[in-house]
Amino acid sequence: METYDALLASITPATGRTRTILDPATGEPVGQAPVHTVEDLDRAVAAAAAAQPAWAALGHDARSAALLKAADAVERSAEELARLLSREQGKPLNGPNARFEVGACAAWLRAAATTALETETVVDDGETLAELHYRPIGVVGAIGPWNWPMMITIWQIAPALRMGNAVVVKPSEYTPLSVLALVHVLNQELPDGLLTAISGGREVGARLAEHPAIGKIMFTGSTATGKAIIKSSADTVKRLTLELGGNDAGIVLPDADPKAIAEGLFWGAFINTGQTCAALKRLYVHTDIYDAVTEELSKVAAAMPMGNGLDENNVLGPLQNRQQYDIVARLVEAARDSGAKILIGGNPDADQAGHFYPATLVTDIENTNPLVAEEQFGPALPIIRYATIDDAITMANGLDVGLGASVWSTDNAEARKVAARLEAGTVWINKHGAVDPRIPFGGAKQSGYGLEFGVEGLKALGIPQVING
Fold first, then answer.
1. Which of 6, 16, 275, 394 lies 20 to 30 Å from 433 when distance is taken between CA atoms?
2. Percent of the chain having pLDDT more than 70?
3. 3-state class of 21 per DSSP?
């Protein structure tokens, strides 16, 4: 286990261009990130391609054993990783935040290592024996986001490594230190050259997407960037797993218990201060219980402390960057100007250091309002009133994205009927955004394609091969 200072020093380059990363809560420097070039990327890809065959030849059992050791390494450095993550990304140490994220990294590594992937017998009729196998792709490119930089990086690289691939990671320019530190820790248990993080700008990401030696791209981020990756990967016919933008809807049925669901609704929407792809971003509540739900939800929101992530008392932090802060502020002000009611929040302290925007609930808002129709990706939740379930479903399905959705009810059977009518990759019942390493996860419509997690996630990192004899 390294100290925090030693961990930070291990990823601080001795030579070459660097960039100062600032704490979004204080504006103070966190550390120096290398500014890698396209040439650095090319060297990393070449090293990965050289290391991959020997790694693939080890077989599933040996690779899984290495991933389990990597999970142990993450746990040995968990507090140091969480502190760095909190300072760079802004999320607090406590609550479903920095320590939670580092713990999830270890959990997903272990899940990838221990999920069984058996050879599938397709036909065995005495004359034909056809078996379906999954072979390594080769080198996988992983492009991650700034909201859950460590956890989503693990979502990408753990199954890729388990399936016998090498990986080159390109972290977000906003949160490179967290990913560089995580990769440093993982590499304590992995062969040289197999896993590399390249911290560069857009030109590095563009090169990764088009690189002829990259067999697959995994990307989590905006729909616009995902479309650009699709185009740039086309000439080399890369395999793709894309988890893109979402604007998740939740529907509260008239039989729901407002007090019982209030905390679940809050964390569904405000986990990571709302900066989560599969967070609850539009809430539709039946008119009969609309006032009761908004009242109970406002009580929960008012009790959640926001501030510097290193303060053990806080569970909400700043927005990670000023660009995202400005988006949230613009959408809330547009809602206010339209006549919607700001039930709580909506008035950030202009004198406060950092990108803090208060937890905000907006009521009496039209479904066509920009705060509803656009993905805010921050701590502002519009709550829309509906009269019939058909109206709610029509509104929930009315956008061109469909990552997740949720239904809230005391009647599970009725909730499942509503869930079956929603256009989303995952629909949760009485919870929202609860991902599980055993359960496939992916989007519908323009929220991307491909599945992660579980057996299906492993298959997505292999090339299917049928042996027919």
1. 394
2. 100
3. strand
Domain chopping of the chain, boundaries: 4-244+447-468, 248-429
The contacts of residue 383 (CB under 8 Å, 6+ apart) are: 283, 285, 290, 293, 294, 297, 343, 361, 362, 363, 365
Give per-residue burial for 25-57: e unless 16+ CB within 10 Å, then b.
Answer: bbeeebbbbbbbbbebbeebbebbbebbeebbe
Contacts of 422 by beta carbon, 8 Å cutoff, 6+ apart: 249, 251, 393, 396, 397, 402, 405, 407
Q: Which superfamily does 248-429 belong to?
A: Aldehyde Dehydrogenase; Chain A, domain 2 (3.40.309.10)
Whether the model clears a pTM of 0.90, i.e. scores above it, the answer is yes
Active site residues: 243
pLDDT tens per residue across span 53-97: 999 999 999 999 999 999 999 999 999 999 999 999 999 999 999
Tell the burial category of 61 from Cβ atoms under 10 Å away from its Cβ (0-12, 13-18, 19+).
exposed
Task: Supply 411's token pair.
Answer: 């009647």
Nearest to 246 by CA among 285, 284, 279, 283: 279
Burial 344-369 (b: 16+ CB within 10 A, else e): bbbebeeeeebbbbbbbbbbbbebeb
First-to-last CA distance in the chain?
Answer: 51
